[in-house]
Structure formats: structure tokens, C-alpha cells
Design brief:
Blueprint: H1 2-17, H2 22-33, H3 38-44, H4 51-72
Helix pairs in contact: 1-4
């Protein structure tokens, strides 16, 4: 799961950097953080992990989420 999150972060940052306008940026945000967004879907799956994995992946996903939120602003 960690590798998937890293890949999504890299992909999202590339898309954010290449956004041509504000609407394009909003579309990218929905793609990753919307109700059925890619990162949102992964975060929902954390509940199915073991306690140790929840801690590790939870912290890691929080860092990625913060990085991407900062990139959007």
C-alpha cells in the first residue's frame, strides 16, 4: 500500500505542476480527494489493515495528503 501511495503522490504532483488553469487544478483535486478519489479510496482501506500497518500507513498517508494539499494551495 505504501508503494501505491508513493506512486499516487508522484503522479498527483506531476499533474498539479502541469495544470494549465484553475479549473484543471480543481479537476485534479477531485480526482484524488473527491468522494471516490484515488487517495480517498486508499484511505478508506486502512481500516482493513493490522494495527501495526494502520499506524505506519496512516502516518505515511497523512504526510502525503498534507504534501498534496500544500501543493494545491
Amino acid at each position: 500500500m505504501k508503494e501505491l501511495l508513493e506512486k499516487l503522490q508522484t503522479q498527483a504532483l506531476q499533474e498539479i505542476g502541469g495544470a494549465a488553469n484553475l479549473q484543471n487544478l480543481k479537476d485534479i483535486e477531485v480526482k484524488y480527494f473527491g468522494r471516490n478519489g484515488e487517495i480517498t479510496t486508499i484511505l478508506k482501506g486502512i481500516k482493513d489493515l493490522s494495527d501495526e500497518e494502520k499506524r505506519t500507513i496512516g502516518q505515511f498517508s497523512h504526510q502525503i495528503k498534507k504534501t498534496l494539499e500544500d501543493a494545491f494551495t
